[in-house]
Amino acid sequence: MTNRLTALFVFLAAGSVYWLTRAPGLSWQFGGTDGGELATAVDLGGIAHPSGYPLYVILGKVFTVLIFFESPASALTLFSAVTMAVGMVFLYAAGSKLLPDANPVVISSCILTLAFLPFTWSQAVIVEVYSFAFMFWTLILWQTGSLVQHFRPSKGYFLALVAGLSLGSHLMLLLGLPGVVVWMLAARPTLRRRDAFLMGGLFLLGAGIYVWLPLRAGAVPVSNWGNPDNWERFYQHISGEIYHVYQFKGDYTENLVAWSKEIGRGFGPLLLFLPLGLGDLWIRRRPFLLGSFISAASIGFYRLGYAAEGVNAYWLLPNALLVIWISAGVQRWFQLLDRRLTLIILIFPLVQLAAHFNEMNLRNDHEPEKFIHHVLLPLPENAILLTDSERETFTLWYTIYVEKKRADICVIDVRMVQWAWYVDNLAKQCHGLELEGFVTFYELVDALPEDRPLFSRFPIELTDRTIFFIEG
To answer: Are residues 191 and 247 located together in one domain of the fold?
Structure first.
């Protein structure tokens, strides 16, 4: 009963803070650039940017239907808040399995400290996939802990299915799963061959959620990223081929220092308990420690080498493991001293909450709405608008195709005309636009209908067309 009440407290504490500070709709803060594109894919049942996030798109749509009294974007910020809070509950359940003699105050305080770190909080208040992925990761940790503690084939089957489905939230979980397998096999080395085959089959069945991509390819032209209707384009999409240029190109030292500073500022003195926690887990939970280290190292190494911005949310998964390591150390320390001192640890999440509340509060963030009122709504009828910014393009998609405002406007992102699928989609979206395959920027401008006024969000030179530049 104590654990259930504590889990409820964790959910209410994290969830209420996230609810109070979530954005009222789309937001460009905290890496929320993709929010408009994701919300459009969810609402229209389309294909999101690589890797497609099919489970997020499907369950996000279900959630927005249930929360019908809010706009789709607003409902999806609530979806982020709820899934992150549920993820914290699953993390508490995992910690309780791994540290059964731990004081609930210790585990819950460490988890809430994580919940109120900017790394974490920022993803719970915008339209993004990372809260959803975090929920699945912590569910996997909880269920694996339950499985190795009391093995039953049915638990293993459920875990395998969840692990497969989790890939539909974000493929970064694939980097963490080998460590989970090592943990499970090290703790339960006598897994029957039949159970292993069934678990493998259920994992593949769950991962089959990606069949959504070819099934929906072409159904919604505006939300048909990559048009994965054949094996080649399907593989390019799920593998994130367009992002390969960023992989293993980052400054490992610089990124490690940046992460260390954030963790140091967040957990502060709690990190002093980390060596004690690792030592305690080595003695009592060695399979978990080995597996969790493999998972954290795999995801961390990938993130450290990623050269693009906006992927700090990858740290959510290793940070969940870090919390369990720290909790083990804190619990061991207070066992050696006086259990009554455990209440002192409550100060850490409160400090994080107070320190970052104003910074994380997006309740009054209306910047995307102001952009729409400044740029889209005043345009003359049947205008064509050229953009070169993801956040503006995706916000325009959401406004035009989800909110059904200014459907007469044709939006063209000039950076995306390098992709043949995008040009083909444009021909279906914009009346009178005759394009096929890859085109250069000037070929694009020459192909635009002359009877439609042309506007741009960036200065353009060396063209005979009259193009009106919209500043601000």
So the answer is: yes
Look up the domain containing 465 and give its range.
367-469
Same domain, 291 and 327: yes
257 and 380 belong to one structural domain: no
Q: Are residues 78 and 13 in the same domain?
A: yes
Number of domains within the chain: 2
Domain termination site, one of 309, 336, 360: 360
The verdict on whether omega for the bond into residue 80 sits within 30 degrees of 0, i.e. cis, is no
Q: Are residues 284 and 211 part of one domain?
A: yes
Do 311 and 390 fall into the same domain?
no
pLDDT tens for 8-61 read 999 999 999 999 999 999 999 998 999 999 999 999 999 999 999 999 999 999
Residue 52 makes CB contacts below 8 A (sequence gap 6+) with 210, 212, 213, 225, 226, 228, 237, 238
- pTM for the structure as a whole: 0.95
Q: For residues 386 and 315, state if they share a domain.
A: no
Q: How far apart are CA 468 and CA 460, in angstroms?
A: 9
Token pair in block for residue 404: 């059904």
User: Do 144 and 164 share a structural domain?
Assistant: yes
Q: With contact defined as beta carbons under 8 Å apart, do 270 and 113 qualify?
A: yes
* pLDDT tens digits, one per residue of 211-235: 999 999 978 778 899 999 999 999 9
- The pair phi, psi for residue 412, each rounded to 5°, is -125, 120
